Amino acid sequence: MKHKEPIELFMPPNMLKARAAGGGTSGLDMAAIKRAEQAMETLKSEFADWLADDVGVLVAARTRYGEQPDATTRASLLRAAHDIKGQAATFNYPLIARVAGSLSRMIGDMPENAALSLSLIDAHVNAILVIHKQAMQDTSDKIALALCTELDARVNEALEDTAKA
């Protein structure tokens, strides 16, 4: 039998755990963090414009789908709604993110051969337009929350009706 070398285990230090336990921020460049925060503040003024561009894409996708409801225009509509869902919260429009999420769920969860309700799509798109135009960023607005709840309920009904058929 060969002579075996003893095994040595090396455990690298867990810097994240050390920092979380109060190990300090010596590895962080606080000046870089401050510059990043200032850059974000500068960009915030452009968020509304970026969101407006995304809303315009959604409206155009809705128009194309209404004119020619096929797989391609449906995919474009889903993509536009999904993009807004992902970006609106970052742009400080959580209500738009919620409405776009509801629209995305309806389009994405509805079977591909099932027709989408144009009136329900329009209700979502119009809600997004109003929330954006009114710059509604407060998630405690009772009217906006009631609208979101109602849209979610209508999507649930549409999905249930399709599942039964």
Overview features:
single chain; 165 residues; mainly alpha; extended
Describe the structure.
The chain is mainly alpha-helical and 165 residues long. Helix 3 runs antiparallel to helix 4 (94-109), helix 4 runs antiparallel to helix 5 (118-133) and helix 4 runs parallel beside helix 6. It contains six helices and no strands. It has a domain at 86-165.
Q: Topology, please?
A:
Elements: H1 15-20, H2 30-67, H3 71-88, H4 94-109, H5 118-133, H6 142-164
Helix pairs in contact: 2-3, 2-5, 3-4, 4-5, 4-6, 5-6
Distance N to C terminus:
72 Å
Name the shape in a single word. Answer: extended
Order of helices and strands: HHHHHH
Low-confidence parts, pLDDT < 50 over ≥5 residues? none
Residue share in helices? over 70%
Output the structural class: mainly alpha
Portion in strands: under 5%
Q: From the alpha carbons, calculate the radius of gyration and give it in angstroms.
A: 24 Å
> What does the average pLDDT come to?
87
Task: Summarize the biggest pleated sheet.
Answer: none
* Beta strand count: 0
Count the helices. How many?
6
